[in-house]
Amino acid sequence: MKIYNSLTDKLEEFKTLKPGEVTMYVCGPTVYNYVHIGNMRPVLTFDMVSNYFKYLGYNVRYASNFTDINPKIITAAKELGITEREVADKFIKAYLDDLQSYNCNEITYRPKVIDNLDAIYDFITKLIEKDYAYVVDGDVYFRVTKIKNYGILSNQNIEELESGARVEVDEKKEDPLDFALWRKTTEGEQFSSPWGLGIPGWHTECVVMINNLFGSKIDIHGGGVDLKFPHHENEIAQSMALNNNTIANYWMHNGHINIDGTKMSKSLNNFVLAKDFIKMHNPNEVKLALFKTHYRLPFNISEDLFKEAKILNDKIFNALKQANLYLKLNNEPTGILQKDPNINAIMDEDFNTPNLITYLTDLIKELNIKIRNKDKISSTYDKITLINNILGLKYDLYTITDEDLSLYNKWLEYKENKNFEEADKIRHNLESKGVL
Ligand SMILES: [Zn+2]
Predict the structure, then answer these.
(1) 235 alpha carbon to ligand 1 midpoint, in Å?
(2) Distance between CA atoms of 180 and 344, rounded to whole angstroms?
């Protein structure tokens, strides 16, 4: 299969480090408040990516972290009048609840910074020993100019970056591009490091966690496109310094989210919290709407798109419900088909979910036609199930019992004998159960 690699800006053939296994890491949330719908895009995207690798037969080892030590958490703790740990725990729980309400699958690891402090001390110590980092007054900074290919991911060179206004000037740093690996803190939560009391820098934790869980290199590092610079660039710089590699063979970035054509952001105050959004939309509708846009492109939230997604979701649900009864009536087994070459052809092109949804729509039509023609439906049904699993669509279908079937047959009998009163009673019963 082919994946668009942000590191090389090319569509590349995907080869894993280890046969049969995919290792991937996606930067997780800083747990100081509720996440908004923009934060959910990488979550849903890489859930789909992981599902597709599982469909291909890979063992997927997937990690996403919690940034549970951060200046924003210290500020939130002051505002809420609780401790930093209480802030972190509260919003970790809220995040996990969000994932559940969006029907996301479990992942392999969810490491926290607080559990990795010793590894972070070791990592920074090694960088200092190798002269890639220096200590100034209780802070530790990374020496960016020592990394020759710095800017490789975001396609910028050091000279451009040096003159750019995006870099803050800090008198403590040797160079404006240098970034903090460790920061001295005078208020809030402080941890006792070899360099004094403070908190670790955000760019370090991800590299340390990856090295801890997987070793020096993984297959895929993912995240939102806004993390490319400086966060991911700085992760790469540290990995170049200690491991002489770019951490991941493939870097994948999802596009941002627009609301009615305007970029969603905190400063514009046009963001929607994930927990509020899901109250208005069923998770299947969110995914059908989201995956109609390729993951690398900006996603525009509009009312029309969600109307369309709702119509499609209802169509899928009704077709599956009908099929559920039809399969039972005809005693047709399902779950036999494990692969569909059409799915592979579509998804092997850098996870082309818009085309997969078109294919799903065609299969739903095919299913309805086959039921009408009284044909066998299991292969079409299985293909739909495979796609639903990849996109993370879940449909609660009622399990039809033998008793329901005999009731159904009675209903048909009453109808044929034009005993509509009795037929209606049974129909109501079957409808309330979800058989019809
Ligand atoms: Zn990260």
Answers:
(1) 7
(2) 44
